[in-house]
Design a protein that fits this description.
319 residues, alpha/beta, six-stranded mixed sheet, 13 helices, 45% helix
Length: 319
């Protein structure tokens, strides 16, 4: 998240954090927090070929066409946090984006009011706070970890939804300063003067984390802190599969993950996929659009590709 800071590993060079640095850090969390289950829910693929709707090809970029719409739109699956050494935007992705007139992300990353909207909705409901969710020893462990790795004590996030804490934790998992596909796509959109829009609002995304028990969210964070080497190895494997676009193997890795929130697929994935379809239909009917969402939303019979096909769209891989 610390996109403009130096010496981010370990946080040893950061003794004091200015207000502007804190705001920058929170902005980074806002950009990436929705993807804290990258290796858990990412890249869900078809569970079967029952209705021949789910994708079977290994591809992250897909063309969207429908009779009556003269120009195609495109759908791209992202991995939202990745080390710069592994980051790459293919020529086919850049070419597809250049043929469109707007970029649609899960959330409007170009919205100047995004930070303020996040601050309004980031706290837990009903007066909950972190100390009520964990033991004293667990709280102290979290506090020390964030002081060492981020340079900010856990007290700053005392009332925030626990998932917000996953943003800084990703730095420790990736062992690098992560790069974001979404922000890179925003920059490309700016260069060609394309509008950036969101499929859903900040309030909608933050509300997802009110539907998942706060204690379960904290348990996942503690599990990752206690098993950082294992989490790093799992994420490295996921990145390798993402780079080869091998979505079938990515799906198998997803099922084996030890860092997930079991039972929350409906909330995190399928309910949102269903809700998005009518919005995507409206978006692509207005102008050719480059749509980029987490690759977790693409695969399977209840994924965005299958649901769009059921609505009469032709979705073909761009290989």
């Amino acid at each position: 998240m610390e996109k403009r800071e130096e010496g981010g590993k370990g946080g040893r060079r950061m003794k004091l954090v200015s207000l502007s640095a804190v705001e920058d850090r929170l902005t980074g969390i806002n950009t990436y927090y929705m993807k804290v289950l990258v290796w858990v829910f990412a890249f869900l693929i078809s569970a079967g070929a029952g209705f021949a709707q789910a994708p079977t090809e290994n591809a992250l970029l897909w063309e969207i066409t429908k009779p009556g719409q003269p120009k195609p739109s495109y759908l791209f699956g992202t991995i939202h946090l990745i080390c710069p050494a592994d980051f790459a935007l293919s020529d086919s992705v850049k070419s597809a984006l250049s043929k469109t007139e707007q970029v649609a992300l899960e959330m409007d990353m170009d919205d100047p009011g995004m930070m303020m909207n996040m601050m309004k909705s980031m706290n837990m409901r009903d007066g909950n706070e972190l100390k009520k969710l964990v033991s004293e020893s667990e709280y102290n462990k979290l506090d020390q970890f964030y002081k060492d790795s981020v340079g900010v004590g856990i007290g700053m996030f005392a009332k925030a939804k626990p998932f917000v804490l996953m943003g800084p934790l990703f730095n420790a998992v990736l062992n690098c300063q992560p790069q974001s596909y979404e922000m890179s796509l925003v920059e490309l959109a700016k260069k060609q003067q394309s509008e950036v829009i969101g499929i859903e609002s900040m309030d909608e995304q933050m509300a997802v984390f009110d539907s998942i028990p706060y204690k379960d969210q904290v348990k996942m964070i503690l599990a990752m802190i206690d098993n950082l080497p294992k989490a790093r190895n799992e994420f490295k494997e996921l990145v390798a599969l993402y780079k080869t676009q091998n979505i079938n193997e990515l799906y198998k890795l997803t099922l084996k993950s030890e860092f997930g929130l079991d039972g929350n697929e409906e909330i995190m994935l399928f309910d949102r996929n269903k809700k998005w379809i009518s919005r995507i239909e409206k978006i692509v009917s207005e102008k050719p659009t480059f749509i980029a969402v987490g690759a977790a939303h693409l695969g399977g019979e209840r994924g965005v590709i299958a649901l769009l096909r059921k609505q009469g769209y032709k979705i073909r891989p761009v290989l």
